[in-house]
Design a protein that fits this description.
The protein has 448 residues and is α/β, with parallel strands linked by helices. Among the domains are: 87 residues, Roll (Pdz3 Domain), CATH 2.30.42.10; 212 residues, 2-enoyl-CoA Hydratase, Chain A, domain 1 (Alpha-Beta Complex), CATH 3.90.226.10. It is 31% helix and 25% strand. It is built from twelve helices and 21 strands. The radius of gyration is 23 Å and the shape is globular. It starts with a strand and ends in an 8-residue tail after the last helix. This is S41 family peptidase.
């Protein structure tokens, strides 16, 4: 999710909107008038003859939601509790289970659980279907209705019935809801490698990454082999935070550009001088749950030859949502632009292709678990640049002899996270040969 938050509309602005709208309608062609007349005809008929009296607010909100539903999966109108959830999510403090999901053929399908949340700790995985909530069948519901069913007071339990590919039968998972105050960034030093885990792009993520880089540099006394920037399962967030995090690893150059529907509607973001990683090798870990702002960072560091991107092809959400507050507790979230990496790539519906595809072999469900990406969502925006078919085909890295171990074999060796283990060992090998990641990330060094 990429969000740009705009202030509430001032009263004078609302008043000024009336003649502008009237002028626009006066210039509309006959077809537009006919469509508006059709809408008013239906509205009046419903008001006059529906079996029960209908409140104007219900009808208008239904019309707004229907209009936005015809656009793309990320445009929406929220009021009251939904608005509070939107606001606190971008601030990094919200209540619930910590799971990102979509509706597919009427069913709730998990995109990714957020790290260190109740859903993540309960073992909910990307590709899971939630078919029942507290024993009640949940089908043919909207996103808002599904979210409402999963909400509840912190400390209260909820039972989810889950269908997972590779399992013969559905199984139940009981989760205790929490007030989730995300720690967007965690860090540690693993075998001489600085490890930074970024699980969201909330309002303080950029500062937290900068603080982590400073702390790692101090704790290692300058004796560091490189960095692993882990953005697996990161659903995105604020574009400004993505720029800050990219900037922390870059000395110069473009980070990302946003392009609206007009040719001249382009906004570019650049890195400022000062690489806080001091030029040390960087590996970026991504997977199918890495989306939006996470893809901005991965794309920027990959295009600038600053990092080696490792893992799976990312989600592919390359659009920007502008959030306009339309009332005290109401907001319009509207897709207003696509974003592009420094080389001009649009990752919309295509994703970021890793330099080295590394499967998560330590996950026993890895092979059977379905992947949900932007291209799987109904009404998703297409990339303005035609995506290469090869980009949308998932290579099978398990044919590589390096990736032949089973989850049981890895567990016996004490390897709980194969992708992270492989990234750390790769940095150690590169450091041993004195090889820069920039060279390894060049086209000649790409491994498929």
């Amino acid at each position: 999710m990429i969000n740009k938050v705009l202030p509430p509309l001032a009263l004078v602005g609302a008043l000024a909107f009336v003649p502008v709208a009237t002028s626009s309608l006066a210039a509309a062609d006959v077809t537009n008038y006919q469509e508006l007349e059709k809408f008013m005809s239906v509205y009046e008929r419903v008001k006059a003859t529906y079996v029960e009296p209908v409140d104007d607010k219900v009808l208008i909100n239904g019309a707004i939601n229907g209009m936005l539903a015809a656009l793309d999966p990320h445009s929406s109108y929220v009021e009251q509790s939904d608005y509070d959830t939107l606001k606190t999510t971008t601030d990094g403090d919200y209540g619930g289970l910590g799971v990102n999901f979509t509706i597919e053929d009427g069913a709730i399908k998990v995109i990714t659980p957020t790290e260190d949340t109740p859903a993540w700790r309960a073992g909910i995985k990307a590709g899971d279907y939630i078919t029942k909530i507290n024993g009640e069948l949940v089908y043919d519901v909207t996103l808002d209705e599904a979210a409402e069913k999963m909400r509840g007071p912190a400390g209260s339990p909820i039972k989810l019935t889950v269908v997972r590919a590779g399992r013969d039968k559905p199984f139940d998972v009981t989760i205790v809801r929490e007030r989730i105050a995300l720690r967007p960034v965690k860090w540690e030093i693993k075998d001489g490698v600085g490890y930074i885990d970024v699980n969201s792009f909330s309002g303080n993520s950029g500062e937290a990454v900068e603080a982590a880089l400073t702390a790692i540099d101090k704790a290692s006394s300058g004796k560091l082999l490189g960095y692993v920037l882990d953005m697996r399962g990161n659903p995105g967030g604020l574009v400004d935070e993505a720029v800050k995090i990219s900037d922390a690893f870059l000395e110069r150059g473009e980070v990302v550009s946003q392009r609206g529907r007009e040719k001249g509607d382009i906004e570019r973001y650049y890195a400022r001088p000062g690489d806080m990683a001091h030029g040390l090798p960087v590996i970026v870990l991504v997977d199918v749950g890495s989306a939006s702002a996470a893809e901005i960072v991965a794309g920027a560091l990959q295009d600038q030859r600053r990092a080696l991107v490792m893992g799976e092809r990312t989600f592919g959400k390359g659009s920007v949502q502008t959030v306009v507050q339309t009332g005290p507790r109401a907001a319009l979230r509207l897709t207003t632009a696509r974003y592009y990496t420094p080389s001009g790539r649009s990752v919309q519906a295509g994703g970021i292709d890793p330099d080295i595809v590394v499967p998560q072999l330590s996950d026993p469900d890895y092979k059977d678990r379905p992947r949900v990406r932007e291209a799987d969502l109904r009404r998703h925006l297409l990339s303005q640049a035609n995506a290469d078919d090869k980009l949308l085909q998932e290579d099978d890295p398990t044919k590589d002899p390096r990736f032949s171990a089973s989850a049981e074999e890895l567990k016996a060796k004490g390897i709980k996270d194969f992708q992270l283990d492989y990234a750390v060992k790769t940095l150690k090998r590169l450091a041993g040969r004195g090889t820069a990641v920039a060279a390894a990330a060049s086209p000649k060094g790409k491994s498929r």
